[in-house]
Design brief:
The protein is built from 14 helices and 33 strands. Strands 11, 12, 13, 16, 17, 18 and 19 form a seven-stranded antiparallel sheet that branches. It is globular and about 80 Å long. The N and C termini lie far apart (about 70 Å).
Length: about 650
């Protein structure tokens, strides 16, 4: 009895520890710094509990302190509740590695939360690659630092990396870096935690008497072949011109766009060992799989759907669907990858596939699915399988044959089937009777029914006109952008079209109004438009037209309809606003003279006599022109200025 009790207590303890481990998450603002550089370790309680900020332990080579009392954020892993975010500022003082032990937090609900040990890499100052910018005749230095987790990864093994920019206070804002790779694939470089903190969080470091602002971008690298692979590129920034007179600088600040070069980073990828099983495709990491279905029985030629879930660490977002171990009795259809709803830069998580299949012979179970992967930690190939799913075999719904019976070669004879003499459509009364039953006793009753209807229509019309006046500018911009998207040349590449379509959806269709077709277009954009050039399959013209029709239907359901946009144009004209389509910038843009359009739009964006909305529209035109000139960094920056 005592042994059973101890076993139950041990099981309960393990379950409790596992649950707690899932409810506390730690992540770095930057996990690679130089001495004196401030970074932050974020602790997230995903169940929304509030924890006390107890004294922090002493660690060798760094100082630790709590930054704030914490705040609530929206955590992707807990969509129905807010998570609690706490931050610890870490400042190392020597080169090497800083080891932060596990921290135990006491929450207001009486629970204790324990974090995992954390490691911080501290580089020497000599690891920073310095360069200069010319700002209005003034030479401004800046530095770049690459950090890669693994210098010798295997082919297809994800390799987390950071790009750090050390710049003076003149650099105000950055766009996403444009990376050029050789035999290397990479996800988009994005600021750390930007989706949670809603901004571009930065660190700082004092070096050679200058306070440098530090910006960190994170991504994941995927070597495509063995040997040396490289990555380099540029990043566009908005910089303030340094003024010779500090008094003038307090009142007037001129800004320019500058392009900062990113030094090359090299890593050496290892070839995967020989002896890979025939079922191995490209999975590298450590994974687990499971399968489930909503089907309750099997029947000849009736399709069922099986969901296969893959969880683990590795190239989780690029692996193929696990294969069926025995497909002799089955007809398989191409699997679908369900939207994981997770950050694709992450090297751990869960993806789910949907496999449609139908039995072509009698069977009593769904066979196991298997996934073969290479585990870098053990340097071995491993295969994981799901358990077979037993289901009852029933008679075919098509042929009506019993289980195990053979279907007849030809359909049975019709036999003698009595057919009723068709003289009328049953159930419809004569018109005279119907009119007598539905006519009102007196015509005056109609007016009593019309009065509330007229009042409601009048109230709806007033609300409609006010809404049109308020959102007329948004409606005009949406329709102009859609016309430009629809006029994309047929010879434009799929990458250009998908980026333009994705930009339109993210700019003009709120996330709450994005249906499954919009999410599919965005996922297709993410999967195809950010691969190395030339690696994406071209979209057929018919598929592009289908996407345009889906976008058109989506914007037709928005609060401001197409007809409302037309009415808004007349309202705006009555108010005396000049039509933007008549200005020189739009004319130059529509004629393909994008450099001239940028010049016209720039004059309008800097004209302080214009309203904010007019200057925002000019910045929007600059962004569109840069986008057409294949300069996505400058385009994104001007889109941000327009917002």
């Amino acid at each position: 009895m005592m042994k059973k009790l101890l076993a139950i207590l041990s099981l309960f303890f393990c379950m409790t520890v596992t649950l707690m481990a899932q409810q506390v998450v730690t992540t770095w603002l930057s996990d690679a710094v130089v001495p004196g550089e401030q970074t932050r370790l974020f602790i997230i309680l995903t169940d929304g509990s509030i924890a006390r900020q107890d004294p922090l332990p002493r660690v060798k080579g760094a100082s630790l302190r709590w930054v704030s009392q914490g705040n609530y954020i929206r955590w992707p892993g807990s969509p129905n509740q807010s998570a609690f975010l706490m931050a610890i500022e870490v400042t190392p003082d020597e080169v090497g590695t800083v080891e932060i032990p596990s921290l135990t937090l006491q929450a207001n609900n009486g629970r204790s939360y324990t974090t995992l040990p954390q490691t911080l890499t501290v580089y020497p100052y000599s690891a920073i690659k310095w360069n200069t910018l010319n700002l209005n005749g003034t030479t401004v230095p800046y530095g770049m630092l690459w950090h890669v987790d693994n210098q010798k990864p295997y082919v297809h093994q994800p390799d987390r990396c950071e790009l750090k920019i050390y710049a003076p206070e003149y650099i105000l804002e950055y766009t996403a870096p444009t990376i050029t790779t050789s035999n290397l694939a990479t996800w988009r470089f994005e600021p750390t935690l930007v989706e949670l903190l809603r901004g571009q969080p930065r660190g700082s470091v004092l070096y050679k008497g200058v306070n440098w602002n530090v910006m960190t971008f994170q991504s994941t690298l995927f070597p495509l072949r063995a040997g040396e692979v490289t990555a380099a590129g540029t990043v566009t920034a908005r910089a303030a011109l340094p003024e010779a007179d500090p008094l003038i600088a307090n009142f007037i600040r001129s800004e320019v766009l500058v392009e900062m070069s990113i030094p090359e980073v090299k890593i050496t990828a290892q070839e995967l060992p020989e002896g890979a099983p025939a079922s191995f495709t490209n999975a590298v990491g450590d994974f687990r799989i499971s399968a489930s279905t909503d089907a309750r029985d099997l029947s000849a030629n009736e399709p069922i759907t099986v969901k296969i879930k893959v969880t683990g660490t590795g190239n989780i977002h690029s692996i193929a669907c696990p294969a069926l171990t025995d497909a002799s009795n089955w007809k398989l259809y191409p699997p679908n990858k369900l939207d994981p709803g997770q950050n694709t830069r992450s090297i751990q998580g869960t993806v789910e596939f949907q496999q449609m299949m139908r039995p072509i012979a009698q069977t009593d179970a769904i066979p196991p699915f298997e996934l073969t992967f290479f585990d870098p930690s053990t340097q071995q190939y491993k295969t994981v399988t799901t358990s077979p799913i037993p289901l009852e075999w029933k008679a075919s719904a098509i042929t009506g044959t019993a289980a195990g019976g053979a279907a007849p070669a030809t359909p049975p004879p019709a036999g003698t089937i009595p057919v009723a003499e068709m003289t009328d459509i049953y159930g419809i009364m004569p018109a005279a009777v119907m009119n007598a039953l539905t006519a009102p006793a007196h015509w005056g009753w109609y007016f009593l029914a019309y009065i509330p209807a007229v009042v409601l229509l009048g109230m709806a019309l007033i609300r409609y006109i006010r809404r049109v006046q308020k959102e007329s500018f948004t409606a005009r911009e949406r329709m102009r952008s859609f016309r430009r998207l629809s006029s994309t040349p047929r010879q434009a590449s799929s990458t250009e079209f998908l980026r333009a379509a994705g930009n339109f959806i993210e700019s003009y269709i709120p996330p709450s109004k994005q249906n499954e077709e919009m999410k599919t277009i965005l996922q297709l954009r993410d999967d195809r438009a950010f691969k190395p050039s030339g690696s994406s399959d071209e979209l057929p013209h018919a598929e592009r037209q289908h996407m345009l029709q889906a976008i058109k239907k989506a914007i037709a359901k928005l609060p401001v309809l197409i007809m409302a946009a037309v009415l808004a144009l007349s309202v705006a004209g009555a108010a005396g606003n000049a039509a933007e389509t008549d200005n020189l910038g739009v004319q130059a843009y529509e004629q393909g003279e994008y450099a001239k359009a940028i010049d016209y739009f720039s004059r309008e964006s800097n004209d302080t006599d214009l309203s904010k909305s007019e200057r925002a529209y000019a910045s929007f035109g600059i962004g569109n022109s840069y986008y057409r000139m294949n300069k996505p960094g400058l385009a994104a920056l001007n889109y941000r200025r327009a917002l």
